[in-house]
């Protein structure tokens, strides 16, 4: 045998030398959940280790993440049921919980990057990402609400807005609204290939945002499709997206690779709530080593071609490498 691949695996130093993929804290965006009130920190039962914070405790959480080296965040607000309506009007209330939280974070930590979610579901009494009329999700009417929402977020201090709604034309629409109002420096990370997935469950628990009726299959993509992701990528690019995102990540590593190979834009992947919950649940049962599984999962997403990973593991990972 002249070729013995095991030679390059024989010691830790050699293995490290030939390692093709490395993770760093700069790769991560850490999602945060916000609730009304004071001095609140409530764990989400389906996401062990992840909490919903009132604005005061949220600032402490951001501080401890920044000290660990995690500097980019994706905040989400949990809106009381009585403030939700069909038009999701609370989504563009400048004094609402979400813009208040953004302003507070940016005031206390001007250097962190905030990527804010643009979609109606946490604010909609129907629990859908768009306006519902006779069971149908209206596209163009929804764009107007998304535009108002993105503008309020930009005014509050968002660095990047992240439309996660999958309406047609939203990236171009939001780009125009932001530019017309003078926010041409605010970026757009489009949830480009967002699939109708069963792995969103714990997130919808966290925000009580599950659809009241039906599913999201008329706007989120069919998980059997990959060419369709290229159509979405092409449109988002033409419409002015600064980043393309694939969501979820783990059952979609081929889609991450596909977009990486077909675009010059940075590619993000969202390692979503259900993916996090699976690892945590198995680890809590003693069925797998949770820490090792975390590193393996995150490395696989990077290896597939993601430049940026949105993950609930960001803080865990930062604590892990500090140890
Ligand atoms: C809102 C939104 C969702 C997630 C991010 N933004 C839920 C959904 O589309 O139903 C899910 C994130 C996760 O599961 O971690 N549209």
Automatic annotation (TrEMBL):
A single Pfam family it belongs to is ALAD
Q: Which domain of life is it from?
A: Bacteria
SMART domains reported for this sequence? ALAD
EC number annotated for this UniProt entry: 4.2.1.24
Swiss-Prot/TrEMBL keywords: Heme biosynthesis, Lyase, Porphyrin biosynthesis
Pathway(s) of this molecule? Porphyrin-containing compound metabolism; protoporphyrin-IX biosynthesis; coproporphyrinogen-III from 5-aminolevulinate: step 1/4
Gene3D superfamilies, per database record:
Aldolase class I (3.20.20.70)
Supply the enzyme class, top level: lyase
Family annotation (InterPro entries) = ALAD, ALAD_AS, Aldolase_TIM
Provide a Gene Ontology MF annotation, just one: porphobilinogen synthase activity
What is catalyzed by this enzyme?
2 5-aminolevulinate = porphobilinogen + 2 H2O + H(+)
Q: Which family does it belong to?
A: Belongs to the ALAD family.
What quaternary structure, including any partners, is listed in this protein's UniProt entry?
Homooctamer.
* Name used for this protein in its record: Delta-aminolevulinic acid dehydratase
Which classification does the entry list for the species?
Answer: Bacteria, Pseudomonadati, Bacteroidota, Cytophagia, Cytophagales
């Amino acid at each position: 045998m002249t070729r013995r691949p095991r030679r390059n695996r024989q010691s830790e130093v050699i293995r490290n030398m030939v390692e093709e993929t490395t993770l760093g804290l700069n790769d991560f965006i850490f999602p945060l959940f916000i609730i009304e009130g004071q001095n609140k920190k409530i764990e989400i039962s389906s996401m062990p280790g992840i909490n919903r914070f009132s604005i005061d405790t949220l600032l402490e959480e951001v501080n401890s993440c920044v000290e660990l080296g995690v500097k980019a965040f994706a905040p989400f607000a949990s809106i009381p049921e009585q403030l939700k309506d069909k038009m999701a009007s609370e989504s563009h209330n400048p004094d609402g919980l979400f813009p208040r939280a953004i302003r507070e974070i940016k005031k206390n930590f001007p250097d962190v990057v905030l990527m804010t979610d643009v979609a109606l579901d946490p604010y909609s009494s129907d629990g859908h990402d768009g306006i519902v009329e006779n069971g149908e999700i209206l596209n163009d009417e929804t764009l107007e609400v998304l535009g108002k929402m993105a503008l309020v977020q930009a005014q509050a201090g968002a660095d990047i807005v992240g439309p996660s709604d999958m309406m047609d034309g939203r990236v171009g629409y939001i780009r125009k609204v932001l530019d017309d109002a003078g926010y041409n420096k605010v970026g757009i990370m489009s949830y480009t290939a967002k699939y109708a997935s069963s792995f969103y469950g714990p997130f919808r628990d966290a925000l009580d945002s599950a659809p009241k009726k039906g599913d999201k299959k008329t706007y989120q993509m069919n998980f059997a499709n990959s060419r369709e992701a290229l159509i979405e990528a092409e449109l988002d690019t033409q419409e002015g997206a600064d980043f393309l995102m694939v969501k979820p990540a783990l059952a979609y590593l081929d889609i991450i690779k596909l977009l990486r190979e077909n675009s010059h834009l940075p590619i993000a992947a969202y390692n979503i709530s259900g993916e996090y919950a699976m690892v945590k649940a198995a680890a809590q049962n003693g069925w797998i080593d949770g820490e090792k599984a975390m590193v393996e999962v995150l490395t696989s997403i990077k290896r597939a071609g993601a430049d940026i990973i949105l993950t609930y593991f960001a803080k865990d990972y930062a604590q892990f490498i500090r140890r």
